[in-house]
Write a structure and sequence with these properties.
8 helices, Serine Threonine Protein Phosphatase 5, Tetratricopeptide repeat
């Protein structure tokens, strides 16, 4: 029940962020993408109101472009999905973040850390270990956290 409430809160934040981006007019898209975005946003909001959380998540993630204003929302959404046991969807969201060329190094490292957490939750320790090892060397901000998770991975593999 708590995870469902947390997912609803994240979805509402995602909906507000998408609405803010739409209202702000700061989206740089061609005409076809601009026409498609509001329908995805409203479709997601309808799913949310109808209690169809899974469909709402899909619609909002399609509607909301990844940028520095929405990165935390995407990371939070992936974390909630991971906690709900929907690790494959969390992995997909975090892998999608890594494909974005406009992310700063810190944002990229944060996305790597979240993806490693997804891999740990899925039992894919070899993939998590590789990401965390790279992160421990490359990132000053997340090095200590990566090393703690590496220790957890090594303990889980024994």
């Amino acid at each position: 029940m708590i995870l469902n409430n947390a997912l609803l809160v994240v979805l509402l934040v995602l909906a507000v962020a998408a609405g803010w981006m739409l209202g702000r007019g700061g989206l740089r898209m061609d005409g076809a993408e601009r026409a498609q975005l509001p329908s995805q946003y409203y479709r997601g909001f309808n799913f949310l109101l109808d209690g169809e959380e899974d469909d709402a998540v899909d619609a909002f993630t399609e509607a909301l472009a990844v940028n520095e204003d929405t990165l935390d929302t995407h990371i939070a959404l992936g974390s909630v999905l991971r906690k709900r046991g929907e690790v494959d969807r969390a992995i997909r969201i975090h892998q999608n973040l890594l494909k974005r060329p406009e992310l700063t190094a810190v944002q990229l490292h944060q996305s790597h850390l979240e993806l490693a957490r997804d891999f740990i939750a899925a039992g894919l320790y070899d993939r998590a270990e590789q990401l965390l090892s790279d992160l421990a060397v490359q990132s000053t901000e997340f090095s200590a956290t990566a090393q703690r998770h590496l220790l957890d991975v090594h303990e889980a593999q024994r």
